[in-house]
Amino acid sequence: MSIKELLQEKTNVDEVTLRGWVRTFRSNRFIALNDGSTLANLQVVVDFEHTPEETLKRITTGAAIEVKGKVVESQGKGQSIEVQATEITILGDCNPDEYPIQPKKHSLEFLREQAHLRVRTNAFGAIMRVRSTLAYAVHKYFQDNGFFYVNTPIITGSDAEGAGEMFRVTTLDPKNPPLTETGEVDYKKDFFGRETNLTVSGQLEGETFAMSLGKIYTFGPTFRAENSNTSRHLAEFWMIEPEMAFYDLIDNMNLAEDFIKYVLKYTLEVRREDIEFLNQRFLEEEKTKPQTERSEMSLIEKLEFVIHNDFKRVSYTEAVEILKNCNHNKKKKFQYLIDEWGVDLQSEHERYLVEKHFGCPVILYDYPAKIKAFYMRLNEDGKTVRAMDILFPGIGEIVGGSQREERYDVLKQKIEDLGMDEQTLWWYLELRKFGTAVHSGFGLGFERLVLFTTGMTNIRDVIPYPRTPQSAEF
């Protein structure tokens, strides 16, 4: 039986066998036992007079133990029941002089260096349980709404974003690769017979399945070789990417908003205890900030605000006007000043719109074509595309999506204009020749969703083992 099951048990349980890790052991009598199933520790009362001295010495913080005992009403504060141990077995010793996760407050920086053990802390245990439930909610939402789950390739020959920031996959000898007559690396001699990379997105392949199955979604790892050593970027992260046939931009916005509200509501209900703990942590962190930088809402208030309020829909053109004329821009408080239409909005601009101007999540749409990817549907004005981004407080962009370009000639011309290799995208273009139709989709970086839900501020703290520039530990 897990500790969670025991604490939730409605009927009387007289005797139990529990296994877990010692959080603390005090007065040679009270063990705080945690097995990861819940935030709560269970108090185990040791009959130290009848327990061998050798066993007592081995009950240390971090040790794995098995406890058999009687469940009784607790006399102490903080718990309704406790277990009076009749038998304790040490399953795995833990040297207290070497164990780094001692029962005290550790910095997040220190815990990142102990990523293999940090999930034993209350905060990281809560974060990872929330992450697990969010992932389940993602699948549940799409499965309940008629979507099919598709596993798109991790190794690919195409660059879905056209940015070129990809990790190469090769079996060639890096010190002596085969060369062509012109001195280029001869990828025909490579494993796949061509240049291949780790995927930056499953979108393009997802589109092909949407145009057969109707509504699909991918949920898998993606990789960006972007040298961004920030609190918002990872080199390896998980992406949720639905693609829908016969959906236009408005349908796409409606789906994205409904989806986000559902997964947040579901997770808040199922993981209430963990989120309440993270809420308290969030409030404590806010107290350390200057008054002007503190959040006006608690973590739970933020989640409920998103769940219960409509997202504000604003065109890129309108957003640029707001930013250009705001005091923040006029007083040069932005790092990147807004002075003309067509600039790519930065995180500071996105957060200003959400946190200062509108005070709610915002969906920006109809972006300049020049700053968006080649596959987005060109509007009739010839200068904007049917793109949409969802902006969240504290995060900035959390969703990026668009109506896809379904016209063969237009897409072919865009690929040519951007100097992209048409040969690697022949199959994607061909989709526009055989039964083309309006279709749309979006991508949501899962870690940013976890970041928002847990109230954490660094994306490295919401993924088990973060991959960042100059760091691939563990």
From TrEMBL:
One of its GO terms (biological process) is asparaginyl-tRNA aminoacylation. SUPFAM superfamilies: Class II aaRS and biotin synthetases (SSF55681), Nucleic acid-binding proteins (SSF50249). It comes from the Bacteria. Belongs to the class-II aminoacyl-tRNA synthetase family. CDD domains: AsxRS_core, EcAsnRS_like_N. One of its GO terms (cellular component) is cytoplasm. Coiled coil: none annotated. PANTHER family: ASPARAGINE--TRNA LIGASE, MITOCHONDRIAL-RELATED, ASPARTYL/LYSYL-TRNA SYNTHETASE. One of its GO terms (molecular function) is nucleic acid binding. Keywords: Aminoacyl-tRNA synthetase, ATP-binding, Cytoplasm, Ligase, Nucleotide-binding, Protein biosynthesis. Its EC number is 6.1.1.22. Residues 128-464 form the Aminoacyl-transfer RNA synthetases class-II family profile domain. Transmembrane segments: none annotated. This is Asparagine--tRNA ligase.
